[in-house]
Specification:
alpha+beta; two-stranded antiparallel ribbon
Length: 391
C-alpha cells in the first residue's frame, strides 16, 4: 500500500504541462530580447531616449548597451537572442510526436539551453568585472536561460531516457532535412541568420562624414570653436566631455542639423571634461583621460584643425583604452611631437580651466549641457528651439 502510494506521488506531471511551461518561458525570453533590441537601437538613434532601467551607476541598461560587448559578430547580442529563442521554439514544435515518449529534440534543446546559460554566465562576469553595471532585462534573460536548462533537463530525463550522445544523434536524425517541413523550416532559419549578419545596419558606429566645405567654421571672441551660421537664428553652446556617450550622440545629431541648416544654426563647443584631475566639481575618479583629450582638441583648434580632431576623439572614445597619438597625427596631418607636448602645455591648461570655470558659473553639474539664450538645458534640447528652423 505504501509502495503504491509512493509511486503515485512520484509520477511525473503530464507531458503537456512541461511543454507549455517551456513555451511560456521561451516566449518571455523572446519578449525580453526583442525589448532589448529596440532599446539598443533607440539608445543610439534617438537623442532623447533613456531606458527604463537607467537607474544608477550599478543598475543601468544604457551603460551595458553602450559597451562593445553588446555587439557580437557585427550584430547586437539582443538580436541574436531573438533569433536564438525563435530557433528554440521552432525546434520545440518540430520535436512533437504522437505521445510523450515519442517527443524528440529535448536532448538538443538541453544542449542549446546549456550554451545559453554558459553565455549568460560569461556576460554576467563581464558586467561585474569589466563594465561595472547591470541590465535588468539581461538579468531576466539569465533567469530565462537557467529555467530553460532546468526544464529541458527534466523533460529529457523523464521522457527521453538514454545516453546523452545517442539521444542527441536521434534528435539530429529526427530533424533530417530530407523531411520537407524540416527542410523548409531549417532553410528559412538559415536565411534569416544570414540576412541579419549581412544586412543588419551598424547604427551604433558613429562615423559622420567630413564637414562640407561650404559650412562656415570659426572661433568666438573668447577663442571657442564654432560651426554653422555666421549670423545664426539659433546659437547652441554645448558643454561636453569626450568620454560621455550622450555628448557623443547629441553632437552627431546636432551636427547633422547644422549640415542641413548651415545658415540658421551655430554650434559652439566648450570643453567640460568630467575628469577629476581637471574639473573641481568631480570628487572621485570619473571619465579618466577626458581632460587630456580636451587638451589635444585645444591644440588642434590652435592649428585650425579642431573639428577633424574633435570627430576622431568622439569616434575613438569608449572603444579604446587610450588615444593613439601617432594615428591621430597621421589622420589629421598634425605633428606627433606637438600632440605629445599638448597634454602638458600650460597655455592649453589655462584655456581648459577657463572653459570649466564658465560651466561652473552656469551651474553645470553634468554633460552634455546646453546654453541657449541664457538658459541651461541638461542632456537634451527642447524641440521648441528648432520649430521655426526645421519646419
Amino acid at each position: 500500500m505504501i509502495e503504491s502510494l509512493t509511486k503515485k506521488t512520484s509520477s511525473p506531471l503530464p507531458f503537456p504541462c512541461y511543454f507549455w511551461t517551456v513555451v511560456v518561458i521561451c516566449l518571455l525570453g523572446l519578449t525580453a530580447a526583442a525589448s532589448l533590441s529596440v532599446s539598443h537601437y533607440r539608445l543610439f538613434t534617438d537623442p532623447a531616449y533613456s531606458s527604463f532601467c537607467a537607474i544608477s551607476k550599478a543598475i543601468n541598461c544604457d551603460t551595458v548597451s553602450q559597451s562593445p560587448y553588446a555587439v557580437l559578430w557585427g550584430v547586437p547580442i539582443a538580436v541574436w537572442g531573438v533569433i536564438a529563442y525563435l530557433s528554440f521554439l521552432l525546434l520545440l514544435v518540430l520535436g512533437l510526436g504522437r505521445s510523450a515518449h515519442h517527443q524528440r529534440v529535448w536532448t538538443l534543446l538541453f544542449s542549446m539551453a546549456l550554451g545559453f546559460s554558459g553565455y549568460s554566465l560569461a556576460l554576467a562576469a563581464i558586467s561585474t568585472f569589466v563594465i561595472g553595471s547591470y541590465c535588468i532585462l539581461c538579468i531576466a534573460l539569465y533567469a530565462v536561460n537557467l529555467l530553460l536548462l532546468f526544464f529541458s533537463w527534466i523533460v529529457r530525463r523523464r521522457f527521453n531516457a538514454g545516453s546523452f550522445f545517442c539521444a542527441l544523434g536521434e534528435d539530429l536524425r529526427h530533424l533530417s532535412p530530407k523531411k520537407p517541413l524540416n527542410a523548409l523550416v531549417l532553410a528559412g532559419l538559415l536565411a534569416v541568420i544570414a540576412g541579419v549578419k549581412i544586412f543588419y545596419p551598424a547604427y551604433w558606429l558613429f562615423q559622420p562624414a567630413p564637414l562640407p566645405v561650404q559650412i562656415a567654421t570659426g572661433v568666438t571672441p573668447e577663442g571657442r570653436p564654432w560651426v554653422g551660421a555666421e549670423n545664426p537664428a539659433l546659437e547652441i553652446v554645448e558643454f561636453a566631455d569626450y568620454q560621455c556617450f550622450q555628448c557623443k550622440k547629441m553632437y552627431y545629431h546636432l551636427r547633422d542639423l547644422v549640415t542641413k541648416y548651415p545658415e540658421r544654426i551655430r554650434l559652439v563647443h566648450v570643453h567640460y571634461p568630467m575628469d577629476h584631475e581637471f574639473n573641481p566639481i568631480v570628487k572621485e575618479p570619473f571619465h579618466i583621460g577626458s581632460g587630456k583629450m580636451a587638451l589635444l582638441a585645444i591644440y588642434a583648434a590652435a592649428e585650425g584643425r579642431f573639428w577633424d580632431v574633435h570627430d576622431l576623439l568622439y569616434q575613438w572614445a569608449g572603444s579604446r583604452q587610450e588615444i593613439d597619438l601617432h594615428e591621430l597625427a597621421s589622420r589629421t596631418h598634425l605633428p606627433v611631437d606637438r600632440l605629445v607636448r599638448a597634454t602638458e602645455n600650460r597655455a592649453f591648461e589655462v584655456k581648459l580651466a577657463a572653459d570649466i570655470r564658465l560651466g561652473m558659473k552656469h551651474g553645470i553639474q553634468a554633460t552634455p549641457s546646453y546654453l541657449i539664450r541664457g538658459n541651461v538645458y541638461e542632456g537634451n534640447i527642447p524641440y521648441e528651439f528648432f520649430k521655426g528652423i526645421v519646419d
